[in-house]
Amino acid sequence: MKTVRSLSLAALALAPALAAHAEVPRVVADLPAVAALVQQVMGDLGQPETLIAAGSDAHHYQLRPSQARSLQQADLLIWIGPEMTPWLDRAGSGLAANATALALLDLPGTHRQDFGASAAHDHEHEHEHEHEHEAESGHDHDESHAEEGHDHSGLDPHAWLAPGNGRVWLGAIAEALSARDPENAKTYAANAAKARDELAALDAELKSNLAPLAGKPFVVFHDAYGYFTGHYGLTPAIPVSLGDASTPSAARLAEIRDRIAAEGAVCAFPEANHDAGLIATVIEGTGLRQGAALDPEGSLLPPGADHYAATLRSMAKSLTECLGQG
């Protein structure tokens, strides 16, 4: 079966054959943050369609029939990659034969990293606690694995949370659009250059604002923040759930409470589109402050060209408001 990744590796090779009948491409993006980068490059020439609806979870999403039709009609698909949305890799068989795709995680210059050492530590020790807590949780080892869903090691797909990647991707998006629409190549290039400069300025601002938070451990809903904490020099977050935001087992919750005490966590942050009550349960009796919900996908923010910057700003604001107290 044809997959989106198999197309992405040869995405620009089709350009010479397509340029003869070039027009502004019909673009589909997976995440709102990706669509924002595309919109910045397209400017007034066009508007991408975003597959992940506002308030939805990208890890566990099902395309509507209308969205499947949009994929069939798209000239260009721009997405993070199957590590983030495996369901979209399967849906890629519906792309038109002359469509191209750009998997951003595959692009040269993209900073890629595996799920952090803290995640590996959690996963290893969860197995120890599973055996200790089987009787009280009512779940055996196999059931716990069924709950988790799959292996959480390997490449962390939340790479848009490193703004340096956003800058790399803006240039690649401009090249992909220009390959389909050479008449507007100068506009795409100019828009991308402007957006890269704006993102560099935002990055410098956030680095200054977040610097005082270094060395303050905190708890998050799931393991999505390694790029952000690494880039801004923050202590790696303690995730309650793992990389795909699956529901944690009772054994994992016990492990997290142990880590909160051992590492001296300061704050805990719920996450948009996930049960805030779970965070409240985990930190009950610990004395941790509960901060505003983090929204790594920007799923609750207005769509548009400003969405990517707004996502990063929102993350920094929520962290600063809680971790910056005392």
TrEMBL record:
This protein's UniProt keywords: Ion transport, Signal, Transport, Zinc, Zinc transport
Gene Ontology terms for molecular function: metal ion binding
Cross-referenced Pfam families: ZnuA
Keyword Iron attached: no
Bilayer-spanning residue ranges: none
Gene Ontology biological-process annotations: zinc ion transport
Region (Disordered): 113-158
Keyword presence, Transport: yes
Ranges of biased composition (kind: Basic and acidic residues): 113-155
UniProt signal peptide: 1-22
Family of this protein: Belongs to the bacterial solute-binding protein 9 family.
Protein known as: High-affinity zinc uptake system protein ZnuA
Lineage, opening ranks: Bacteria, Pseudomonadati, Pseudomonadota, Alphaproteobacteria, Rhodobacterales
